[in-house]
Structure formats: structure tokens, C-alpha cells
Write a structure and sequence with these properties.
Elements: H1 17-25, E1 31-36, H2 43-53, E2 58-64, H3 66-70, H4 83-91, E3 98-102, H5 108-114, E4 118-122, H6 131-137, E5 142-146, H7 154-164
Parallel strand pairs: 1-2, 1-4, 2-3, 4-5
Amino acid sequence: MSAAFPLPDFLNKLCPRAQLRDRLATLPRPLVFTNGVFDVMHRGHAIYLAQAKALGATLVVALNTDASARRLGKGPERPLNKEQDRAAMMAAMAAVDVVTWFDEDTPQELIAQIQPDILVKGGDYDMRKLPETALMHSWGGTALALPFVDGYSTTALVKKIRASA
């Protein structure tokens, strides 16, 4: 006997870019935006996302598409997880309100489209050098770097798995 189970509610957090403006209009502000590949989720990601969410009322995460992620130079086999799988994992995170994706090399066009109140990046970025920071400041937004959680890195995790194989 098999029972039909509905899809989990967290999948409703997935939002194609074409529908993003309408979706965000229904959500409370301040709007916090972050982006990345988020290939293999780990504790560092969970802490980072919770800290980002604490800065505002709505957290939007934009994922690099598979093609965009490959252009980042992390290796031809990356990302390990396909964009739809990465998006589902991200949507399952309690801190995240909306998940979308972008195919460009940077999220600048997407940021300009949605005009978040706060842009958050990981601690390895010099926010003064990012063009996204100037873009955020053009409408009075804020750009912040959150500190890294030491000891957690997808690249290091991938190397560790390969070394033990």
C-alpha cells in the first residue's frame, strides 16, 4: 500500500527570476540579499544564512546557475550538485525566505532589479572593491561582509573526500 505525500512547503520558496519582483512585493522589508554557489551545504553556510536573516525581515538567496558556477574556476566537475538540487537544499533552510538563480558572472543585474536593503557576502570579500557595493549605495542600501565560520569550506570538503577515495 503506497500513500501519496504532498511536496514539502519549502519548495514554495523557489522563485524564477521572472516572478521575483511580484513575489518580493508581498514580503516584509528590510530585504536582505546574498548569493553564491552553495554546492555542498555545511555548518558554515547554516550559520552564515542565519546571521544574514537576522539583519532583516526577508532573506533572498540567489544561486549561480550551473554554467555560472563553472565559470568561477572551481574546477570542471563543479558544481557537484545541479542547480535545482542546490536550490531545493537552500529552500529547506529555515532562515531562507526566497531562492532564485542567476546565469551571469555576477549578481549585479539581479541586485539592480530587486534593490535589496542589505547585501551580505562572506568574510573573504573586500566590500569596498565590489561593484555591487557601489550599486547598493546608489539607492541607499548597505553592503556587509559577515565573518567566516572557521573550518568550513566546500572546496576543502571536496578535496578531503577525493583524498580518501
